[in-house]
């Protein structure tokens, strides 16, 4: 019987899977090599993907990593979990 | 096929074959002065829609290396249009050496101006007019962006003038540069215009893009700054081969949007549009 995790864990693709180009208006172009798809993303997506590069994590763990790297105005694990779900739906991270 | 013509347009070689003489004769006259290609990359064939249709109410089907299965046949009187559409189709579906943008391109002082817009935005007319007024015409349909250095390569096919634009350009260019008037085509009245001699002689000279404009006809004059991300998305939609190229296409397009200023321009008449283009070129590309 499959187990249902209360807080899902997410994994980034292997290093080198993404090509990022930062634009001057703050948006970032992403080319996802495994799917050959292009994404236009805004903060905090690039920061989130970078934090996931350290290894698979759930929203709470990832929030800890983000807090260590950035000054977070409003640390909110629930909001972060929503962003992670969006990234999983877009195929940029895998939900384990 | 019975009747053939080989044409070099920019960096691309075409062979056009036809079951009828007339379309090839019209193409040969329109493309007088264009070189013959060493290698024809693409073949276009104008064939009878059905065997008997070569004689009975002749109707042309466009065939070639790449075809659209649902394309409607054209009347023989529109054979020149069929040849032009066939060449466009080969480029749109088959070309992989450059990032292909649906855009007009012009060159001045070694730099390129790109005009991207949907059909009917007026980019062909604008490009044709600029091509008579101090700019080198590089193409009204496709700008070919080099995948390694980002330069725009010319694709100076004959300009496809539609409806009111025919009269506008008849005041600008000598009659011997025009093809026959094609009436009642799916796009209305069409007449082709051969670019000036310098555009043909220098068709193999690329130029780095220096300004990107998105013109829109029929509005009060306005200039709008576009963010790079919006430009990027618009150009992915204006490219026929962005997806097929994969990462090299991404690299070429992201370099273009980061390096080249872009504006959306609205204009209500061609005279003020030309003045607007000249002003923006002075301000942004000089």
Structural write-up:
Chain A is of the alpha+beta class and 96 residues long. Chain A is 34% helix and 25% strand. Chain A has three helices and six strands, in the order ββββαβααβ. Chain A has helices at residues 45-52, 59-69, 77-90, and strands at 9-12, 18-22, 28-32, 37-41, 57-58, 93-95. In chain A, strands 5-1-6 form a three-stranded antiparallel β-sheet. A three-stranded antiparallel β-sheet of chain A has the order 2-3-4, with no helix packed on it. Chain A is globular and about 30 Å long. The model of chain B has no long low-confidence stretch (mean pLDDT 92). Chain B has helices at residues 21-30, 79-94, 123-132, 164-170, 197-201, 228-238, 242-245, 247-259, 270-285, and strands spanning 3-9, 12-18, 42-48, 59-64, 74-75, 98-108, 111-116, 136-139, 142-146, 152-153, 159-162, 182-185, 188-193, 209-217, 222-225, 262-267. In chain B, strands 6, 7, 8, 9, 10, 14, 15 and 16 form an eight-stranded mixed β-sheet that branches. Chain B has two domains: 3-94, no CATH class; 99-285, no CATH class. Chain B is built from nine helices and 16 strands. Classes of the chains: A alpha+beta (96), B alpha+beta (286). Chain A binds chain B through residues 19, 21, 23-25, 27, 29, 31, 33, 36, 38, 40, and chain B through 227-229, 232-233, 236, 243, 246-247, 250-251, 254, 257-258.
């Amino acid at each position: 019987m499959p187990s249902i995790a209360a807080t899902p864990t997410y994994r980034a693709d292997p290093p080198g899977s993404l090509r990022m180009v930062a634009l001057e208006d703050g948006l970032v172009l992403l080319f996802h090599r495994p799917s050959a798809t292009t994404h236009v993303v805004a903060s905090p997506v690039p920061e989130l993907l970078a934090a996931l590069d350290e290894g698979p994590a759930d929203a709470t763990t990832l929030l800890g990593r983000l807090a260590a790297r950035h000054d977070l105005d409003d640390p909110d694990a629930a909001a972060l979990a929503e962003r992670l779900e969006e990234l999983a739906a877009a195929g940029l991270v895998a939900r384990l | 096929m019975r009747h053939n013509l080989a044409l070099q347009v920019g960096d691309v070689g075409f062979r056009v074959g036809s079951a009828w003489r007339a379309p090839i004769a019209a193409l040969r006259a329109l493309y007088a002065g264009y070189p013959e290609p060493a290698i024809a990359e693409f073949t276009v064939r104008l064939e009878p829609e059905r065997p008997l249709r070569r004689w009975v109410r002749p109707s042309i089907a466009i065939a070639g290396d790449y075809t659209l299965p649902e394309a409607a046949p054209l009347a023989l009187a529109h054979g020149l249009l069929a040849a032009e559409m066939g060449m466009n189709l080969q480029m749109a579906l088959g070309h992989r050496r450059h990032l292909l943008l649906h855009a007009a391109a012009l060159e001045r002082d070694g730099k390129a101006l790109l005009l991207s817009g949907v059909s009917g935005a007026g980019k062909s007319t604008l490009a044709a007019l600029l091509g008579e007024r101090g700019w080198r015409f590089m193409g009204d349909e496709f700008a070919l962006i080099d995948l390694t250095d980002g330069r725009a390569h010319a694709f100076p096919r004959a300009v496809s003038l539609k409806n009111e634009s025919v009269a506008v350009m008849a005041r600008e260019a000598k009659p011997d540069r025009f093809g026959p008037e094609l009436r009642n085509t799916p796009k209305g009245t069409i007449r082709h215009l051969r670019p000036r001699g310098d555009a043909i002689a220098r068709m193999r000279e690329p130029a780095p893009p220096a300004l990107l404009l998105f013109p829109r006809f029929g509005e009060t004059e306005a200039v709008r700054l576009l963010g790079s991300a919006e430009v990027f998305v618009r150009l992915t939609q204006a490219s026929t081969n962005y997806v097929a190229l994969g990462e090299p296409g991404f690299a070429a397009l992201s370099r273009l949007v980061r390096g080249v200023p872009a504006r959306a321009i609205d204009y209500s008449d061609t005279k003020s549009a030309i003045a607007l283009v000249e002003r923006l070129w002075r301000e942004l590309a000089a």
